[in-house]
Structures are given as structure tokens and as C-alpha cells.
Amino acid sequence: MSNIGQPDAAGSSAALIQAQRHAVAQLLRISPVADALGEHFSRAGHEIALVGGSVRDAMRDELGHDLDFATSAHPDETERLVGEIADSVWDIGKEFGTIGGRFGELVCEITTYRTDRYDGTTRKPEVSYGDSLEGDLRRRDFTVNSMAVRLPGQDFVDPFGGLRDLGAGVLRTPGRAEDSFDDDPLRMMRAARFASQLQFRVDPDVVEAMTAMAERISIVSPERVRDELSKLLMTPEPTAGLALMVDTGLADHVLPELPALKLEIDEHHHHKDVYEHSLTVLEQAIDLEPDGPDLTLRLAALLHDIGKPATRRFESGGGVSFHHHEVVGARLTANRLKALRYPREVTNDVSRLVELHLRFHGYAQGEWTDSAVRRYVRDAGPLLARLHRLTRADCTTRNRRKASALSRAYDGLEARIAELASQEELAAIRPDLDGNEIMQVLDIGPGREVGQAYAYLLERRLDRGPVDKDVAAQELREWWHQRDG
Questions:
Q1: pLDDT more than 70, % of the chain
Q2: Chain centre to alpha carbon of residue 213
Q3: Of 51, 100, 113, 430, which residue has the fewest beta carbons closer than 10 angstroms?
Q4: Are 268 and 317 in contact (CB under 8 A)?
Q5: Is-contact 189 232, C-beta < 8 A?
Q6: 3-class SS at 111?
């Protein structure tokens, strides 16, 4: 699934013409703000240019409301100049040379010409200011991000052939790929992300450098790696970038559980390719998203089977088993996401989905009781909708009859859930009596015994649905007396 190859020269000329047309239209749209910035900085004796992804996106007719600029002015001067003409200004990125400003609906970030470099051991790059636009463009990650439009004259600057590579649909570095990745190893992650986001081929020299230098990603902070991984996962087709990470060895240092899914299959023991299966599940989960990219669902789809390598057992009849891989996988998922500094909520939700992803298969093999359906809903909690999508995406069999049967079974389960939900509260199942009512019925005060009574009533509620409070109180008294006896 890697997006690797040579530029397609045949179609690049037409693509370049189309890109130029898009750029003209997009620059006309933002010209009031761009020209105002250009004239204001120019009068103060400074250069300023629209740069990087903003120029690339303009060429692709995808320019949004967030614009990137580079300037010869240092941050203090930039802050003063922007503050004089912007609706609002902020300095959150000032230590890295960046000042932000809002101009109507447009959000602009203006960064001093700079170079970023790691010293070989630190997790944070050293930031030093440059003195020319060309030097600033040279330090950028890829040629398609190394284009600029000088302001206010709107002169196009493309010293490294970014427009050509954009037309050809290829990712290439402005200089030697090894030097680029040595300056900032995170660019290897960005290569994987842009392979998916732009759906571009990756230049063979870039692939070779990524393969040789993959271990260097370990000096980058987990937070920066996490952010790039999340951006990759949120692209329209993340499997291309993920496959590039695995093929180059980058995933061994970022997400080692993914390449570990490439289990060896011998001639006597057969099972599906877990790695390819996981990428397919991710693709199918994306197709089921109702409201755009869902990071939690995508992480769960990618990681749902990472417990299989640790639980694989060869059976005497030639089969292979992965007993309790969902439990092991949930633990591995939590550990990996914590290591990458994902927020607690994301970590908990993704690992819970991994733990629950096999639960449905008990339903597919036979009719569940109402109690089992209630417990399924209770255990999924607010993740139920995501669990529906993950479970459906997890069906990758080529056997049409089996796939159809699984689909019908899940349709049936969702219908059962809807039917029960129309009769009783399923979203947050609680006992028929609350804590205060339990204490009143049993004539006891707060303490551990209230919790035990609450747990008993909850189990009764799950087993047979809601009942009248009088019935619940009578059952509680009977349980209490039997307990004392």
C-alpha cells in the first residue's frame, strides 16, 4: 500500500496549468489581507511572503482560512506591526518566532525567517533566525511546501521546483533527504502524513533516507510524534502513510505494535494476514464515519488486533488461536497511547473499544437474551455507536455468505437494542432504587453495604429490565434477609 514511485511527466504539464489557475483565484480571494500585510511590512522596511502549505493549498484550490507567512522582521517587530492592523493578535508561538493575528475570517501566522535543527540528542529543536526568504524555503520539509508568494507584489518564488513536483504528484525534499531528516527527524513522519493527505508518490531518495534514518525519530518528543500520527490518521486515506512507515522501519520506533502484526504464516497453520486485515478494517471504519474523521474510532480500528502476536497459539489440527487477544490488546493499546502522551479520555476510550470489539461475535453465534443485550449496551456506554462501527468494519471476509450473515446478525442486534430502548432506559442503566432509597428501605446509613445493595439491584435490573419501586424494594428486603441469614 505504499505510495512510492516516480513522477508522471506525461500529465504534469496540464496539472501545472490547472494549479496556476487555482492559485490565481485563491490569491485574489485573500489579496485584501495579503496586500495589507505586504504594504505594512514593506513600509517598515521588512520582507513578507505567503509561504508553505498555504501556497501549496492555493495551487490545489484547497486554501482555507488559516494562512502562513514568513518575514524578515523579528518577533517583537512582527508583533508590533501585526497589532497595528489586525483585529486581534497573539504571541503563543513567539519563542519559535511566530506571531498570530486575525483579519476578519482569516487567521494568519507570521514567522521570522528561521532554521530548525536538532543537536543529535535533544528532543527539542534549536531555533535560529535566517536572513532571506530563499534560506527559509530551503529549510522546509518538501519542495511542495517550499514555494512562496512575495508581497505586496505577489511575485511567485519557487527555487526548488515545488510547482513541478506538485504537478507530478511527488514528495521530494529541497536538498538531500538525509540532510533534511537529520535537521528535523519529524519530517519522516510528515512524509508519511503527506503521502496520505496529498495522495502523492514518495521520491525513492526520500524512502531510502527514511529507511536508513528511521531510528533517529526517537530523539523527537512523544508529543510531536503523537501530533503527526494523529494528523496522518485523520487524512482521507491514512493506510498509504501507515504502510510507508512500516515499510521504512519508522513504525518500529513510533508504533511497533503495527509491524508486529505481520505474523509469519507457515504451510501447516493458516490464518489471515493480521497486518493487512487491520489496514482494511481502518479503511472500512472510515467509510462508516457519519460526521467526518473520528480519531478514536480510527485508532481503535488500527489497533484492535494488536494483542494477537502475544496470544497466538498453534493448534494440533492446523489451526491458529488468539484466545483473549482483545484483553491483551486493550492493555497494549493503553500502554502505547500513554507513551505517545494521548489524552486520558482518548486512551481510555480506544482501549475500551479494543477490549469490546469481539463481544458481538457471541451474538452472531446464537440469540442473546434481553439481559445480554442490556449488558452489551451497559458495557459500551457512550462508546456504543463507535462499537457498532468498529464491529461492522471488522468483517473483512471474502466469503460473501459469511459476510452477509454477520451483517444480518448485527442488523438484528441493533434492532433489538432499539426495541429495548423504546421500552426502557438503556443509555444509562441504573437500579430501580437509588442510594437514598436503598438506605431508607433497609434502614441503614451510608457505607459499603449500600454499594453492595446497589450492585445487587443493578444486576437484577440488567437481568429482567425495570420494575416498579415497590417490587424492587421487596426484592431488596428479601436479598438483605438472606444475606444476614
A1: 89
A2: 24
A3: 430
A4: no
A5: yes
A6: strand
Q: Looking up cell 489440527, which residue turns up?
A: 317
**Segment 242-262, tens digit of pLDDT:** 999 999 999 999 999 999 999
For 427-451, the pLDDT digits (tens) are 567 777 888 888 888 888 888 888 8
Name the band, by pLDDT with cuts 50, 70 and 90, for residue 7: very low
Distance (Å, whole) CA 134 – CA 217: 27
For residue 10, pLDDT beyond 50 = no
What are the angstrom distances between the C-alpha of 182 and each of 21, 120, 177, 231? 36, 8, 8, 22
Tell me if residue 77 falls in helix, strand or coil: helix
Could you tell me the end-to-end alpha-carbon distance of the chain, in angstroms, rounded to an integer?
Answer: 66
The rounded distance, in Å, linking the Cα atoms of 259 and 253 is: 10
Distant-in-sequence, close-in-space partners of 246: CB < 8 Å, separation ≥ 6: 258, 259, 262, 275
Question: Can you tell me which residue has the cell 444475606?
Answer: 483
Percentages helix, strand, coil for the chain (3-state, rounded to 5) are 60, 10, 30
State the pLDDT at residue 55: 93
Describe the crossing of helices 295-303 and 274-287 by its angle, rounded to 10 degrees: 160
Inter-CA distances, 24 with 60, 61, 106, 190, Å:
11, 10, 18, 27
DSSP track, 396-443: --S-HHHHHHHHHHHHHHHHHHHHHHHHS--TT---SS-HHHHHHHHT
H/E stretch holding 247 reads helix 238-248
Cβ neighbours of 428 (radius 10 Å): 9
Of the candidates 140, 152, 147, the one whose C-alpha atom is nearest the C-alpha of residue 181 is 140
- Tell me the C-alpha distance between 376 and 141, whole Å: 47
Write down the mean pLDDT value for the chain.
87
Q: Which helix (H) or strand (E) holds 157?
A: strand 155-157
Q: CA angle, corner 55, sides to 52 and 58, nearest 5?
A: 145
C-alpha cell at 68: 502562513
pTM of the predicted structure, to 2 decimals: 0.81
Q: How much is the pLDDT for 457? A: 82
What's the full length of the chain, in residues?
A: 485
